[in-house]
Amino acid sequence: MNKQLIALSLNDTSFPPVSGALDEPDGLLAVGGDLSPERLISAYQQAIFPWFSEGDPILWWSPSERAIINPTQVHISKSMAKFIRQTSLTITVNYAFSEVVNACALPRKTQAETWISPAIKAAYQELHQLGVAHSIEIWNDQDLVGGLYGVNIGGVFCGESMFHQQTNASKLAFIALCRHFAKHQGQLVDCQMVTTHLQSLGVTGNSRENFVKQLKQHAKKNINNSCWNKQKISL
Q1: Which domain holds residue 26?
Q2: Does 149 lie in the same domain as 37?
Q3: 229 within a domain of the structure (yes/no)
Q4: Has residue 163 been placed in a domain?
Q5: 154-187 burial, b if ≥16 CB within 10 A, otherwise e?
Q6: 163 and 224 inside one domain
Q7: Residues 76 and 146 in one domain
Q8: Is 93 in contact with 233 (CB distance < 8 Å)?
Q9: Tens of pLDDT along the chain (235 residues)?
Q10: Total domain count for the chain?
Q11: How far apart are CA 79 and CA 198, in angstroms?
Q12: Quick check: is 1 in a domain?
């Protein structure tokens, strides 16, 4: 099959089939369009997400391998279980969405730049205001020391990024997300790309084809309405 990179129109929020994503670079599907809520929601419903550097055209991806986890199967190591029992850190939902995104956007030690540009921040803030994007926060007293954010599509939570400024804070945020999402009938957490950090928490790789099937299966399921209310939670 001869695969070609598709240029998106500003006047049409549709995407080409993900089966047409390039093999190299793996998963690159389309370029252009915009970051409107309609287009972003449509993308997540079809196993597509944006990822590009500031100043570059918008790039849309659907990699051949997808990192996923059933939230009921999140792995908690013995050392992490001990940390959870003893920690004084607190966990909240949707207390500080923009602050979490800003913290995720800070360059990492191993990265010279961030892909979370001002345009990405504004787009996901709009999704948050529409009740589609959500955050988990980890606090040390009044200090935000960890968290994550992502997009909720029915019974699927599509994670976008996480950060930590204190040991175990991002792991705590991820475990809290899984436990909280499962409690409210969430079915699947999409982590996009497999990493060692995510694998230690029980995340596994799945083929794009299988992920698309799971997404179709769960995307129209309703979770408990109270899931994304602003709240404190505990493990």
Answers
A1: 6-64
A2: no
A3: yes
A4: yes
A5: bbbbbbbbbbbebebbbbbbbbbbbbbbbeeebb
A6: yes
A7: yes
A8: yes
A9: 578 999 999 999 999 999 999 999 999 999 999 999 999 999 999 999 999 998 899 999 999 999 999 999 999 999 999 999 999 999 999 999 999 999 999 976 554 456 799 999 999 999 999 999 999 999 999 999 999 999 999 999 999 999 999 999 999 999 999 999 999 999 999 999 999 999 999 999 999 999 999 999 999 999 998 999 999 999 9
A10: 2
A11: 16
A12: no
Alpha helices in 91-232 (DSSP H): 97-105, 118-129, 169-183, 196-199, 208-218
In-domain check, residue 95: yes
Report DSSP letters for 76-99, one per residue: --HHHHHHHHH---EEEESS-HHH
Pull the structure tokens for residue 70: 């059933």
Please check whether residues 41 and 94 belong to one and the same domain: no
The verdict on whether omega for the bond into residue 57 sits within 30 degrees of 0, i.e. cis, is: no
Checking DSSP bridges between strand 188-192 and strand 65-69, what pairing results, if any? antiparallel
Quick one: tokens of 46? 């079809």
Domain match, 22 and 138 both:
no
For 213, the 3-state DSSP assignment is helix
**Chain length of the chain:** 235
Residues 52 and 73 in one domain: no
Q: Is 61 helix (H, G, I), strand (E, B) or coil?
A: strand
Distance CA 70, CA 186 (A): 9
> Do residues 6 and 31 make contact, with C-beta atoms less than 8 angstroms apart?
yes
DSSP calls for 164-187: ESSTTHHHHHHHHHHHHHHHTT--
